[in-house]
Amino acid sequence: MEKLIFCLSILLLLGSCTNRKSNETEITSAIDQFYKYASSQDSLVLKELISPGLKDLLKAANQVADADVENIKKSKNPSDKPAAIESFIFTGVPDTTTQKLEKITVTGNNAEAIVELKIDEYKSEDKLYPAVRWENTIQLINDGGWKVDNIIFNEKPTLKQQLESFILEANKKPHERT
Questions:
Q1: Using CA atoms, how far apart are residues 129 and 65, in angstroms rounded to an integer?
Q2: Count of helices and strands (H, E) across the chain
Q3: What pTM does this model have?
Q4: How far apart are CA 81 and CA 31, in angstroms?
């Protein structure tokens, strides 16, 4: 009986290690693909890598931005700059050059992945800019595969908070915006 319990314990332990490794592999692949396509918000691949909730927020934000473009064209000031979603919304900065997955924590159908982002040292207009490194936390949900649900930026609102704020602000009349 003791041997049977011991064998079952070993099988359970091996099964949980295999499942954890499988989750980590799937999450790593999802994040790699996410950053590969992050600059093209309309990419079909990207849309498969984000959660339904985040997809809905992005769609609403894009609709508000499109409507603002049309409203400004018809306004007294058609040269005003319309509300727009920046292409670097998923990284927090415009010039991310590399990313590296640091740590994954899985809890049921939720996961958090810490990703190191880095801009290499570069020179522009005879000025040398130093390398910069920071970390973002990617929150994922397992919804028919691992999907990005939110991004926690250092010292900034989360991605979802930024999108919600954008929608509220862009829905204001141009003279009411902050």
A1: 32
A2: 4, 6
A3: 0.77
A4: 33
Question: How many CB atoms are closer than 10 A to CB 136?
Answer: 21
| 91: Cα separation from own chain's centroid | 7
Question: In the 8-state DSSP scheme, what is residue 81?
Answer: P
Q: How far is CA 170 from CA 33, 75, 98, 159, 161, in A?
A: 30, 15, 31, 16, 14
Q: How many CB atoms lie within 10 A of CB 27?
A: 23
End-to-end CA distance of the chain: 72
Report in angstroms the alpha-carbon separations of 106 from 31, 55, 75: 14, 22, 50
Which structure tokens are listed for 73? 């064209």
Secondary structure class of 146 (helix, strand, coil):
strand
Tokens of 178: 């902050």
Question: For residue range 4-22, what is the model confidence (pLDDT) as tens digits?
Answer: 555 444 444 444 444 667 8
